[in-house]
């Protein structure tokens, strides 16, 4: 069902929703960007409608609510192990189509790869409901259309589109209808907006011959990439973590086990006992990451991991373009197979 | 949360067997199905977890041969018989012993790579045609030998070649890399012989090359891969090679598969 609200109606809607849900969405952090006087759009909990950024893509993805940068799993006290508590409130997550597609990739890893579900992921995941933010135009780095992630037809409770002074919603989950009725919404057919054209295009290699793994196409990244790992941390589909134990200096009998976000680009990711490591050069790490996103994940699960959000291009301090790399890969594959 | 696969279980240390100054075998109480080549996460709260291969399986216990090389393993060495360690596992596919019962088999293992295949070699030693089982094990030096008691037993039961990379003057025994002994393996029919290769990456690469040159078929060769692993459950991502997760699909891979796992 479609609903239309005025600006005041939208403000009222968010106020009422905030009484039953925690609201998690893209927020403008004034002056917190990479340079002096530059803002950054990151996810955070919000209380009112004005905080929600609807006109730009967020610089960071929503994923930190599901996979925090650092998450305590257990507390240890002498011989006792206690699972960390979690807040039990339901959360509404406001995100765009590419990110909603990314949720499926996160679920794939944490819930469906291997024989057991990840219980820490599961318990948060169950509390999340997604609100689809419509896209009025493509960002300069987006390539969602070629990745097939520009549109969602399910997986959200309602959608939101801001057109001039009006706010348009497609309510998918009827349980939310009373919230809209309470604001005196006007019923009208609403379809969430989505982009059908990006400036950036990618060609995906169907198969990647083994020779590509050792090809010199990756060499340029050995010299350009500084293995800072930012691309992994902004990526909505990167899931890797490292276990980290800590004990409290005041009392060595008490401590905790955490998992912290890991980056396949950063030193130490592959270190094994005795000092061995794999993929020492940044070019090899780039190959590991890029082939995962557009080939290896697909070979395992049947669809591509990359959702074409373009955030890795936006954040790279060396201006390395992921989409350009995919195209270079596809070109090289073609050259090698013809 | 009903069953949390990240929660380790306590296991009593039944015995500690010292091999070298830095390598001990911890015999841990364990009831349950387990195969050679599988691994456990040894979990020491406040220090961390480390994946350790199963180096032996007995009724009611498993052996974990551990090298003291890091934060977790240093702490493991502070534990003694009668104390408990926390474990998670077993994880991984392990070796399918039924594949190696019949016919000619070659095992090539180097250093700590001997641990995951110790159970395989012990099983080979008990087969009816143990003379057809050829085992080449290499260590860095005479001081680095693991499983001396087993080596003494295996020597009498199957065709064992024990070698060291280097030794002080006066050492009696084979000196040289494991690959040196592959060309002269007394194989009757290399095209049907099976092989298991475990050790450092370069050692595995050259050993497989040597076996292929002898005429062994790719599909008759198995290797075991080592990677950093933080979970053992297919979640943390560290052990991925291409489309495979070593902790789930491995660590044992048939060579037809592993040759395509370039990293």
How is the topology of this model organized?
The complex is a heterodimer of chains A (338) and B (263).
Chain A: E1 2-5, H1 7-20, E2 22-29, E3 40-46, E4 70-77, E5 80-83, E6 91-96, H2 97-112, H3 119-125, E7 128-133, H4 144-147, E8 158-163, E9 166-170, H5 177-181, E10 186-187, H6 219-224, H7 230-234, E11 241-248, E12 251-261, H8 282-301, H9 311-315, H10 322-337
Parallel strand pairs in A: 2-6, 6-7, 7-8
Antiparallel strand pairs in A: 1-9, 1-10, 2-3, 4-5, 4-12, 8-9, 11-12
Chain B: E1 9-18, E2 23-29, E3 39-44, E4 48-58, E5 61-67, H1 71-76, E6 84-91, E7 105-110, H2 114-125, E8 133-139, H3 148-157, E9 159-164, E10 174-175, E11 194-198, H4 201-213, E12 221-224, E13 240-241, E14 244-245, H5 246-249, E15 252-254, H6 255-258
Parallel strand pairs in B: 7-8, 7-11, 8-9, 9-10, 11-12
Antiparallel strand pairs in B: 1-2, 1-6, 2-5, 3-4, 3-6, 4-5, 12-15, 13-14
Labels describing this entry:
A: 338 residues, 10 helices, B: 263 residues, alpha/beta, Rossmann fold, 2 domains, 15 strands
């Amino acid at each position: 069902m479609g609903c239309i609200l005025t600006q005041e109606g939208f403000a009222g809607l968010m106020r009422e929703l905030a009484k039953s849900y925690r609201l998690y969405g893209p927020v403008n952090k004034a002056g917190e960007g990479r340079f002096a006087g530059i803002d950054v759009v990151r996810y955070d909990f919000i209380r009112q409608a004005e905080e929600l950024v609807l006109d730009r893509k967020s610089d960071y993805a929503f994923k930190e609510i599901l996979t925090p940068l650092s998450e305590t799993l257990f507390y240890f006290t002498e011989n006792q192990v206690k699972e960390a508590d979690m807040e039990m409130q339901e959360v509404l997550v406001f995100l765009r189509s590419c990110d909603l597609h990314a949720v499926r990739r996160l679920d794939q890893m944490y819930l469906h790869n291997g024989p057991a579900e990840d219980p820490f992921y599961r318990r948060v995941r169950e509390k999340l409901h997604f609100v689809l933010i419509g896209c009025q135009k493509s960002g300069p780095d987006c390539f969602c259309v070629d990745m097939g992630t520009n549109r969602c037809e399910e997986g959200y409770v309602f959608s939101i589109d801001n057109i001039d002074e009006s706010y348009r919603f497609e309510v998918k989950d009827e349980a939310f209808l009373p919230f809209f009725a309470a604001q005196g919404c006007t019923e009208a057919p609403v379809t969430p907006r989505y982009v059908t054209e990006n400036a950036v295009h990618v060609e995906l290699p169907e198969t990647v011959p083994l020779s590509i793994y050792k090809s010199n196409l990756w060499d340029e990244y050995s010299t350009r990439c500084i293995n800072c790992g930012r691309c992994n941390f902004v990526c909505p589909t990167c899931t890797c973590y490292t276990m980290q134990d800590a004990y409290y200096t005041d009392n060595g009998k008490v401590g905790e086990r955490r998992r912290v976000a890991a980056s396949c680009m950063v030193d130490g990711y592959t270190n094994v006992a005795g000092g061995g490591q794999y993929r020492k050069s940044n070019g090899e790490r780039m190959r590991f990451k890029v082939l995962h996103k557009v080939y290896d994940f697909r070979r395992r699960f049947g669809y591509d991991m990359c959702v074409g959000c373009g955030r890795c291009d936006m954040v790279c301090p060396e201006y390395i373009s992921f989409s350009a790399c995919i195209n270079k890969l596809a070109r090289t594959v073609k050259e090698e197979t013809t | 949360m009903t069953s949390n696969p990240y929660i380790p279980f306590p296991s009593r240390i039944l015995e500690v067997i010292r091999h070298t100054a830095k390598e001990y075998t911890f015999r841990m109480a364990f009831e349950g199905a387990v195969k050679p080549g599988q691994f456990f996460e040894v979990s020491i709260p406040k220090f961390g977890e480390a994946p350790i291969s199963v180096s032996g399986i007995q009724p009611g216990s498993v052996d974990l041969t551990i090298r003291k090389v890091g934060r977790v393993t240093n702490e493991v060495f502070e534990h003694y018989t009668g104390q408990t360690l926390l474990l998670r596992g077993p994880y991984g596919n392990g070796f399918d012993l039924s594949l190696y019962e019949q016919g000619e088999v070659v095992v090539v293992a180097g250093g700590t790579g001997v641990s995951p295949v110790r159970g395989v070699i012990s099983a080979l030693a008990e087969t009816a045609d143990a003379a057809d089982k050829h085992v080449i094990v290499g260590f860095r030096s005479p001081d680095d030998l693991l499983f001396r008691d087993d080596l003494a037993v295996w020597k009498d039961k199957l065709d064992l070649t024990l070698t060291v990379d280097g030794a002080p003057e006066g050492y009696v025994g084979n000196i040289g890399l494991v690959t040196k002994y592959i060309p002269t393996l007394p194989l009757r029919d290399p095209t049907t012989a099976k092989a298991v290769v475990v050790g450092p990456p370069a050692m595995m690469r050259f050993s497989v090359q040597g076996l292929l040159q002898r005429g062994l078929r790719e599909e008759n060769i198995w290797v075991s891969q080592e990677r950093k692993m933080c979970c053992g459950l297919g979640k943390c991502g560290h052990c991925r090679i291409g489309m495979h997760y070593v902790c789930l699909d491995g660590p044992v891979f048939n060579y037809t598969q592993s040759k395509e796992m370039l990293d």
